[in-house]
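= Protein in question =
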Amino acid sequence: MNKSLIKRLIASMKCGACGQRYEVDNIDVLGHEEDLWFLGVFCPACRTQCLVVMVIKEGRAPEVVTDLTEAELDKFRNVSMASADEVLDMHNFLKNFDGDFSRLFSQKKA
């Protein structure tokens, strides 16, 4: 695993203190030993410094942890993925949704 990929991974996370995203330039890879990586991270927004220790295992598929039954897994195994348009439609719906499920389900389709 290369250092720039590790930095981008951490930069996708938010600071635990203030919620701002980390910046790649403020992440230092201090070292690693096999799958164990040590990083120094600085948040320029709140000036918090922290040590990040992470385990990254290359070349191995992650174990699936689920509460679905085997029958449920079989049911969804061959379902096609949602399209980008479907995801965008859901995003737009949820952005404007007020949480009133009773009203939503009582509406008649046009």
